[in-house]
Amino acid sequence: MKPPSRLIIAALVVATSLLVPSLLRSPLPLLPCLPAVTAPSGTGYQPSGLAALADATVYYATTPTVPQQTHDEISLALAVLRRRAPVRLLVFGLGHDSPLWHALNPGGDTVFLEEDPEWHRAVCSASPFLRSHLVSYHTRLDQADLLFDTYRRLPSCVPGAEADDEPAVRGNDACPLALHDLPPEVYEHEWDVLMLDAPKGYFAAAPGRMAAIWTAAAMARARRGEGDTDVFLHDVDRKVEKMYAEEFLCDRFRVGGAGRLWHFSIPPVSRRDNRTAAGGGGERPFC
C-alpha cells in the first residue's frame, strides 16, 4: 500500500490540534445553534462534530489521494472556521477534501454545489453524509472577457445609486453573471463563509468561475446578519479568477492569501462608508 502523503497527514494534524481542544472545552450540545438547513429525505445528511472530524482524520491518514488544496491553503480557511464556527459554509465544488470541510465546521451547516453529474455521484457514493446539490451554470470560460466588458451596461448586474438598491441573485435571469436558479436553500439563508473552488475553469467550454464570483460578491454585499462574509477563492494564478476577484471581491477587502488561495472579508453595503455604499467605486462598482 502506498504510504499516505505527508502533506495530508500534516493538514489533518493541524486541524485536529487546533479544533479538538477547543471542542472539548465546549461540548457540542452547548454550541450556539443556527437555524437548521432542511435536507430532503434520504440524503444521509448528518451534523458535523467530533465523530466527523475523527472519520476525516482516519480517511486522509490512510489514503494516497491528495486534497485539491495545499496544507497552507487549508490552514488559511481553517483559521477562519476555528474563529467563527459554527457557521453556514457554502462550498462551490465537491472534491477529495469535501469530508474535511464538512468536519471542520462542527455544529454548522455545510452545503456543497457541484456541476459534474458523474463526479457528484462518485463523491456522494463515497461520502453519503455530505449535503450537496447538483447545479447548472449558464456561462462558458471563453465568454469571460465579453461578460467582463459588458456587465456594467446591464442594470441587473450592477449596484444602483441607492445603498439598498443591490442586484438580486435569485431569479435574476437578466444578469448573465447571476446564479439565479440554484436550489432554494442557497437563497433562503445567509452564508458566513463561501469557498469558491469550482466550477471547472481550465478549458474553453468549461463554465468558468465568473458567475460564482459575481454571485458571492452580491450575496456578501446584501448581507443583513452580523459580521462580514469570508470568501475564499482558489486558483487565483489563472487570469479569469484573478481578474474577476479584483473586479467583484475587491482588493481593498482582501485580507490574506496562501499559495493559489485568496481570502476576502467583505462587509455588507449597510456597514460601508459613503465612498463604497452606493454605486460602488466608479470603475469598479462592486468595490
From TrEMBL:
InterPro entries: IRX15/GXM/AGM. Keywords: Membrane, Signal, Transmembrane, Transmembrane helix. It is found in: Golgi apparatus membrane. GO terms for biological process: xylan biosynthetic process. It comes from Lolium multiflorum. One of its GO terms (cellular component) is Golgi membrane. The keyword Transmembrane helix applies. It is a single-pass membrane protein. This is Polysaccharide biosynthesis domain-containing protein. Residues 1-25 form the signal peptide. Its main location: Golgi. Pfam families: IRX15_IRX15L_GXM.
